[in-house]
Amino acid sequence: MEEKLIKQLRNDIYKYTHILVNKYKSIDALLKTLEPNHALTEYIQFSEATTAYYIRKFPAATVINLKICKVQQEPILGLNKIEQAFVAAEQGFYQLYPDEAFHQKITKVFRSTDKAYEQLTACLKKVVNT
Amino acid sequence: MRTVPAIIWLFLTTPLFWDCNHAPIEVIPDYTWIDRLDTSINTSGRAKIRFWIDSTGLTNLQLESAFKLYTPHKDLYNALLNAKSVYHQRVLIDDRVSAIPGISQGSFVANGLPRTMILTNPVDSVLSLPAAEAPNFTDATYINLTVGTKIYRVIGGSGSYPTGGYWVDTKPTNYAEIIGGTAVQPEWNGFNEIVEFTVPASGMKVWKGKAAAQPIASAPNKFVTTYSTKYNLSGGGNQLFVPNVYRDFRDSVAYNRFLSNITNKETITWKKN
């Protein structure tokens, strides 16, 4: 792979990773306004630990290992676990939501991640094909 | 040549130190490290840690090493306390993970579908396979389950509900089928019960395909990076995804209908090695 493309891919992966991290953090911030129960606490802990992991793992574009990203579909798979965990766990805490609008607000943020995932998928495709 | 004094000879040959096959007798574990844990863990917590070694079978040395990675120590203690099963505990402390049924040797290689929603044909958005779930499949086909078909789901621990999305069409008979075949990380499931659902007269449209490989742990685990280079959950078993519309907890009619078709719940009694 040519150096210019490598640099571009690393920059893009870094950028979209942090966009996703920030979106998940904004969901956590919303959820933290609720009186927590065990299910909610468990989900927030998982989400926070996951986002913290990717902040540590990708502190700068230059440290991103494209080969590992390609083989392990990272950070897509790891970050996507946050939404999977949310979907699996929400049954245990949705009753804490003040109203339906709160739920819609969270759903909207989750759906806004799709674009960043599409971009990351496109980046990793380029790694695969190069 | 000097001779060994009789008293030393007797000492060296006593069965207190060597058995008849000349194998060393097991050394009594050193638990003093538990006393040195930080003050975030109280006396009953320390007793619990000792219990995990003596009764649950966690390895003393692995526990000691794992605690060194955490500050404060209660972070690991709480994780172990809330672990879904002993397999989850072992993955948390890197304790004989290769012996957990279903965990394969070899680095993790992702083989799931891209994270893109898969639409039904004709398009019905509520029945589509959500983008977030697509990477859990290596292939996915939209099928209709006919009346009377039985499907199964293994649950256990907090956050694991009988109304969840993932099911299998053959009743599991061992942990390896679940953990390895359907690539279920030990942190996701306590593997305590098998739920049976019988498809009602209306039938049920689901997604069926092979489970994608998974890493054995996810990001919050301290060993996640090492694990991904050494182990994997190979997947490859058939799994079903039941769209949320059939089991939606916000829709009491759908939710209760789904619950009413749960025809059996069975406690798993397979021994966890």
Can you describe what's shown?
The complex is a heterodimer of chains A (130) and B (273). Chain A is mainly α and 130 residues long. Helix content of chain A is 77%, strand content 0%. In chain A, helix 3 packs across helix 5. With 273 residues, chain B is an alpha+beta fold. The longest helix of chain B is centred in the first third of the chain and has 14 residues. The termini of chain B are far apart. Chain B is elongated. Chain B is 27% helix and 15% strand. The interface between A and B is medium-sized, with 32 and 32 residues.
Give the secondary structure arrangement, pairings included.
The complex is a heterodimer of chains A (130) and B (273).
Chain A: H1 3-31, H2 38-57, H3 66-72, H4 76-89, H5 100-129
Helix pairs in contact in A: 1-2, 1-5, 2-4, 3-5
Chain B: H1 6-13, H2 32-35, H3 43-56, H4 60-67, H5 74-81, H6 86-93, E1 103-105, E2 141-145, E3 150-155, E4 166-167, H7 175-181, E5 193-198, E6 204-210, H8 224-230, E7 231-233, E8 238-241, H9 252-260, E9 262-267
Antiparallel strand pairs in B: 1-7, 2-6, 3-5, 4-8, 5-9, 6-8
Compose a concise summary of this entry:
The complex is a heterodimer of chains A (130) and B (273). Chain A is an all-alpha fold and 130 residues long.
